[in-house]
Task: structure prediction
Amino acid sequence: MILQNFIVFEGIDGAGTSTQLKILQDKLRDKPAYFTCEPTELETGRFLRKVLKGDIKLHPDTIARLFAADRCEHLFGNNGILELTKKGNLVVSDRYIFSNLAYQSNECGKELPRALNASFPLPQIVFYFDLDPSISINRIHNRGVTEIYEKKEFLQKTREQYLSIMEEYKDKTQIVFINAEDSILNVSEKIWSIISELPIIKK
Ligand code: ADP
Ligand code: MG
Result:
């Protein structure tokens, strides 16, 4: 099932999704649009951030299950994505199921993330930011704080997972392939050329 007016940004760390989310948020400040991320800002998401920082060590299967639980609340909880889109808002999320499929598959195999994410609705559009990890690693290091997944070999494998996932989902929803090596301005213009044409934004 596709959830209309729900859009996600995906890509390896340092690909620029958070930068573009902020730019889009600015352009849409007078529109019925909400901006969110995974892990969420909820308690479930805060716990996951501690895990990603390496402060809490857990079995990879547990991490995959926690991501799914956090997503469940993100979608179906009070003031969640479902409720917001039903009320006529656009919702844009920095990361969604594809992150889980790409990252967690490296650590606990493909089956568990697939099973855990099978029943969640698909977004109307996925903007997939594709970038060589040797570039993203430099961007992350300039940013300062690093997380457990931010190692070049790990990100290389994650990028490969992403590419095969995008191939798999291209007939199931709209996938927009972003060359994330491009300048911040060019990427933001490409995203805007699509978002600005959505009926919910045009009206
Ligand atoms: P992500 O959220 O995908 O991990 P960020 O948006 O936080 O990545 O960007 C990581 C770093 O890379 C930031 O310092 C940001 O300013 C820089 N950056 C983002 N997009 C680009 C781009 N297109 N070209 C060069 N640097 C970028
Ligand atoms: Mg980010």
Observations:
- The domain at 2-202 is CATH 3.40.50.300 (Rossmann fold).
